[in-house]
Design a protein that fits this description.
Radius of gyration: 32 Å
Number of strands: 22
Strand order of the largest sheet: 10-22-21-20-11-18-19
Number of helices: 22
Strand content: 15-25%
Shape: elongated
Helix content: 40-55%
CATH superfamily of the largest domain: HAD superfamily/HAD-like
CATH architecture of the largest domain: 3-Layer(aba) Sandwich
Structural class: alpha+beta
Length: 678
């Protein structure tokens, strides 16, 4: 057989990025991967330059007024003179607090700004001008520190968003004999199917397939891998990569459809969303304010001491959890993005931190998902291996499934004639069916109930898989499909895959973190057992021969048993299970359906990225919990001390600033530091 496949399929489907390049663990340093783009936020900008001049002037005016009123009071200046200095200074200093408090009142929400404003006004009313002004200075300094910390978190995300170039070099005339010409066009005008040229050191603006050229490509900003990946014709290159050689790419996806664009879109959404823990922090802050006002009232009724009453209100304003929680969530999302994962919402980050069970799909998740045909076993009903393979390739004509692509690729390698299929029907988890040369050809796994007593099972899944798996030179994972024509078995096709680099380490790390690990697969028991052995999983941690609905049912049953479940998958058949889990985690190399169903996407599909993302989520939860407990302890102790007269208003303000700053800086530990120039 020498005839070529039709033109539309003259080439096998493009391969994934070079499998010869080993996957590397994510850099666990605090540095951002990659360098800051030219339009990114200035990471090297001095702190003083990041503070608004109005805030600096406001703090300076109120600070000088504080010193002036103290000196005037010590010199015996009449109180009305001191007040004449204090009132304008308070108006200037308290204006930001007034604006925020007014907004809170309109929304019928009690806030720290409102309680601080009440304390400052109360101090001024009783003539404690030094106290009122000093508290104002402390409050303004706390606001500036909070803004600076949030800016750091936003900068980490802004660096992501501003990285891509705004133009691309589009190559024209690639389909003609005329000399190719390159034209610079805005990125939003680039369309799929066009060819763009990249120079050494250039940033890749689109998802594309290498058309010509070979180069090392730095994908650290997307995948978290520290070392460059070698790419050549047919390899995919994600947007956000940096090429170290000249390449021509055929555009696949551009804008928000690209891998980098999806990260940006998800991050923007995450910035605007509020996780449940943030809403909880706001509720706690409001309750602390109400408690402070009640405690202040009790203090005044019991002691008739206005200073102690004011001190109670001031010290209770130290609610670092309200300021620190949004920063922790924002910083965790930024850190996860730079580790090769993007979280679509702060809610999913919080859910991920509470996960106690991780369910892993096998093919495409724990394995590379790029199987190859290793054996074709025809029955007596077939004319030979070529007929079995050609009919199977015809049925898998446009399949996106890794097995289908592998079968078609093998037919192309063998230079077989692949007939044109008709009436193609794809059943997720079961296989594909098509009419080929007048026969209904089906390609799929054998259903176990079809094995009857006395039936020859030499071509069964378990038999073939066991035969291959027993070979020490065989790849690490095997799947077997059967090919039928009008219901008659023509033969079986055995395919081999290999484990993803670091898969066994990732499974071990998840287990050491106290997480339950379960592997699901639609493959045979023999194949599942072999892979489980390589991963260090026991038989109790494996489920095989599963349809998509079965995977979904496994996830639902775990949740019904009280487990918090994360499902990790890559294919269309994993989408129901991804949606059913508390957190769905999709592999970036998986199907669009899986990525849409996932709450978290591992862009580089590295198992190490999964482990690191879980660690980031847990670390964020731990920091937030420390802030919660710390806030309650500091405020409770401070209110008691203030009520007993052991803490004056100025000292209470100092406690306010120091404690709140400590909680904010605790959250800021999650913010990834900018990369050093190399």
């Amino acid at each position: 057989m020498t005839a070529q496949p039709p033109t539309a399929h003259a080439h096998p489907p493009a391969s994934a990025p070079s499998a010869s390049t080993p996957a590397l663990p994510v850099d666990e340093s605090d540095e951002l991967s990659g360098s800051v783009g030219p339009t990114g936020a200035g990471s090297n900008e001095r702190i003083i330059d990041r503070i608004e001049r109005a805030d600096i002037m406001r703090i300076a005016v109120v600070g000088l007024a504080t010193l002036g009123t103290w000196a005037a009071g010590a010199a015996g200046t009449p109180s009305w003179v001191v007040g004449a200095v204090g009132v304008p200074a308070l108006v200037v200093g308290c204006w930001p607090l007034v604006v925020e408090a007014a907004g809170d009142l309109r929304e019928r929400r009690m806030s720290m700004e409102l309680s601080m404003l009440l304390a400052i006004v109360a101090a001024a009313v009783i003539g404690e001008w030094v106290t009122a002004l000093a508290v104002t200075v402390f409050a303004l300094c706390a606001e500036v520190l909070e803004d600076l910390s949030m800016d750091r978190g936003r900068d980490a995300l802004t660096n992501l968003m501003s990285f891509l170039p705004q133009t691309a070099q589009v190559v024209s005339g690639v389909e003609t004999a005329a000399p190719a010409e390159t034209t610079e066009v805005p990125l939003d005008e680039v369309r799929p199917g066009q060819v763009i040229a990249l120079s050494p050191g250039g940033r890749v603006p689109v998802d594309g397939i290498v058309r010509t050229g070979r180069a090392d490509v730095d994908q650290s900003r997307i995948t978290g891998e520290a070392l460059p990946v070698q790419v050549g014709p047919g390899d995919r290159v994600p947007a956000g990569s940096i090429t170290r050689g000249a390449l021509e790419l055929e555009v696949e996806r551009v804008g928000e459809d690209s891998s980098y664009g999806r990260i940006v879109a998800a991050v923007r959404h995450a910035q605007s969303s509020r996780a449940p823990v943030q809403r909880l922090a706001d509720r706690l802050a409001a309750r602390i304010v109400y408690l402070a006002l009640a405690a202040a009232l009790v203090t005044f009724l019991a002691t008739r001491d206005a200073r102690a009453t004011i001190s109670v209100i001031i010290v209770a304003g130290a609610c670092g959890v309200a300021a620190g929680t949004p920063l922790a969530v924002l910083a965790a999302i930024a850190r996860a993005a730079h580790c090769g994962a993007f979280v679509k919402d702060g809610t999913h980050l919080e859910q991920l931190s509470a996960v106690d069970t991780v369910v892993l799909d096998k093919t495409g998740t724990l394995t590379v998902g790029a199987p190859r045909v290793v054996a074709v076993g025809p029955t007596e009903a077939a004319a030979g291996e070529d007929e079995v393979l050609a009919l199977a390739a015809a049925a898998e004509w446009n399949s996106e499934h890794p097995i289908g692509r592998a079968i078609y690729s093998e037919a192309a390698v063998r230079d077989l004639t692949v007939p044109m299929p008709q009436d193609v029907v794809y059943s997720p988890g079961a296989g594909v069916s098509a009419r080929v040369d007048g026969r209904r050809v089906t390609v799929g796994r054998r259903k176990r109930q079809e094995h009857q007593p006395g039936q020859d099972t030499s071509g069964s899944d378990d038999a073939v898989a066991s035969s291959i798996a027993s070979d020490p030179e065989a790849p690490s994972a095997t799947s077997v499909v059967e090919v039928r024509a009008d219901g008659q078995l023509l033969g079986t096709i055995a395919l081999a895959d290999r484990l993803r680099q670091g898969a066994a380490t990732a499974v071990r790390d998840l287990s050491e973190m106290g997480l339950g690990v379960l592997m699901l697969t639609g493959d045979s028991a023999a194949s599942a057992r072999h892979v489980a052995g390589l991963l260090g999983l026991t038989e109790d941690q494996v489920r095989n021969d599963l349809l998509p609905t079965d995977k979904e049912e496994v996830v639902r049953s775990l949740r019904q048993a009280g487990k918090c479940v994360a499902m990790v998958g890559d294919g269309v058949n994993d989408a129901p299970a991804l949606s059913a889990a508390d957190v769905g985690i999709a592999m970036g190399t998986g199907t669009d359906v899986a990525r849409e169903a996932g709450d978290v996407v591992l862009v580089g599909s590295a198992p190490a990225d999964l482990v690191e993302t879980v660690r980031v989520a847990r670390r964020a939860r731990g920091i937030i919990m420390v802030n919660f407990v710390g806030t309650v302890v500091v405020d409770a102790a401070g209110m008691i001390a203030a009520g007993l007269g052991l803490l004056g208003p100025v000292a209470a303000a100092l406690v306010h600033v120091v404690s709140e700053s400590a909680f904010i800086l605790n959250s800021a530990r999650l913010v990834p530091r900018p990369a050093r120039r190399r």
